Amino acid sequence: MVTKDELDMFMPLIVEQQYDAGKEVDLATTRTFFEGVVGDEASFQIMAVEKGVAVGCVMVDPIPNLQFADKVAYAHDVYVTESLRGVRGIGAYLVAAGFVEAMRRGYEFAEGETHPDNRPARRLYDRMAKKLGVSYKEVASVRYLVDLRSGIERARHEPEYLDRLATPRLFSRQSARSGADG
């Protein structure tokens, strides 16, 4: 979880993400925005750090979705610095960590979104649902609805369940397959 004390580490990654998306970045405005949302009870940001440098993040915000629940955790802006994409399973870890934290906070559903032609991201949602023991369905060609209720119910009976899911070891097989160390 990103805290206000970690904004100095977090901001360079956000700037990199915005530039990669082709957006101009006003650092002062962007920092002011994150100072306002970091630590908010409803929204949260998770950051992956390697050797003291932020290398990836996911943002999660509540969104209304009256068809499924009063509020749904919307995981978005998953980003991994270019040199580490597809190498160590950082993106997978971030998505899973976002869904696990959503379960901890009592969200019964989560949504994720990707571009229709982003096959790696689409496979990622499938893997995450299986690893987390939850179901998902493709709602639109780029939007996924993840049903977190089975994970929440299991955590009620196995208090350590969410802590186990939140560890990077969950993805150690993927990292080994890619030949990454660590």
Topology:
Layout: H1 7-20, H2 27-37, E1 44-50, E2 53-65, E3 69-80, H3 90-104, E4 109-113, H4 119-132, E5 135-140, E6 143-147, H5 149-157, H6 161-165, H7 172-178
Parallel strand pairs: 3-4
Antiparallel strand pairs: 1-2, 2-3, 4-6, 5-6
Helix pairs in contact: 1-2, 3-4
Mean pLDDT over all positions: 82
Shape: globular
Helix content: 40-55%
Which regions are unreliable across 5 or more consecutive residues at pLDDT < 50? 170-182
N-end to C-end Cα span: 21 Å
Largest sheet: 6 strands, mixed
By DSSP (H or I, 4+ residues per run), the number of helices equals 7
Strand order of the largest sheet: 1-2-3-4-6-5
Structural class: alpha+beta
Strand content: 25-35%
For the CA atoms, what is the radius of gyration? 16 Å
- N to C succession of SSEs: HHEEEHEHEEHHH
How many distinct beta strands?
6
For this entry, give a set of tags:
7 helices; globular; alpha+beta; disordered C terminus; 182 residues
Written description of the protein model:
- It is a single chain.
- The protein is an alpha+beta fold.
- 41% of the residues lie in helices and 26% in strands.
- It is built from seven helices and six strands; from the N terminus they run ααβββαβαββααα.
- The protein has helices spanning 7-20, 27-37, 90-104, 119-132, 149-157, 161-165, 172-178, and strands at residues 44-50, 53-65, 69-80, 109-113, 135-140, 143-147.
- Strands 1-2-3-4-6-5 form a six-stranded mixed sheet.
- A hairpin with a 2-residue loop joins strand 1 and strand 2 (53-65).
- Helix 1 packs across helix 2 (27-37) and helix 3 (90-104) crosses helix 4 (119-132).
- The radius of gyration is 16 Å and the shape is globular.
- The two termini are 21 Å apart.
- Residues 170-182 have low confidence and may be disordered.
